[in-house]
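Ops channel
N.P.: pipeline sanity check, posting one input/output pair.
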């Protein structure tokens, strides 16, 4: 099975090094010197990692045959792809490969269906589940313990405890307006009565660190 493990960024220096956006929890294994990686587009590879080092918090790689800045810059935005045994599992039981999480059904703790995971986005601060909802819209779910409370690979589902507004703030706003109308005994505000619509301040989506 092929998995995307990194995306090549801009060239660094003049000796062929490139920055990479890491998309694996095991860069020391997947992006080690000597690793041979397929690429997307395929014409850019395969690439053999010659050296790797961390500089200012970013991983820098140099590939065999890429010896100057011009050649390195030509690889920008190329995806690096590793061949992985589909039966292989991460060492940590709380870690998962992307292919294990793809297509999982996402439900809330009370069993309400949210959608299906169609993509995992690896950001510097956290990972995100891109979830396609039944109506075709998408919602982003931070893959953090406080929100994703359970991954059940046998049942092929991810259980979430979404903070207010994460899944559908429109429904919450509508509910709040309905409650407001009921508390006002059904009376509607007239223009000029000095009671304009209330503005909602920014909501925090909980601890996503």
């Amino acid at each position: 099975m092929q998995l995307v493990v990194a995306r090549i960024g801009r060239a660094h220096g003049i000796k062929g090094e490139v920055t990479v956006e890491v998309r694996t929890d095991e860069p020391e294994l997947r992006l080690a010197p000597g690793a041979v990686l397929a690429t997307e587009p395929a014409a850019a590879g395969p690439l053999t990692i010659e050296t790797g080092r961390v500089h200012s918090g970013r991983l820098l790689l140099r590939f065999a045959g890429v010896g100057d800045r011009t050649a390195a810059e030509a690889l920008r935005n190329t995806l690096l792809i590793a061949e992985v045994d589909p039966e292989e599992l991460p060492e940590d039981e709380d870690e998962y490969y992307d292919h294990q999480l793809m297509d999982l059904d996402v439900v809330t703790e009370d069993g309400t269906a949210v959608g299906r995971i169609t993509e995992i986005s690896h950001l510097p601060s956290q990972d995100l589940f891109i979830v396609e909802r039944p109506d075709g819209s998408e919602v982003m779910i931070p893959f953090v313990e406080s929100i994703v409370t359970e991954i059940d690979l046998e049942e092929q589902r991810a259980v979430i405890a979404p903070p207010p507004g994460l899944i559908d703030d429109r429904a919450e706003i509508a509910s709040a307006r309905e409650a407001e109308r009921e508390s006002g005994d059904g009376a509607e505000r007239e223009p000029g009565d000095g009671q304009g619509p209330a503005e909602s301040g920014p909501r925090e989506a909980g601890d996503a660190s």
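N.P.: looks fine end to end. The longest strand covers residues 2-12.
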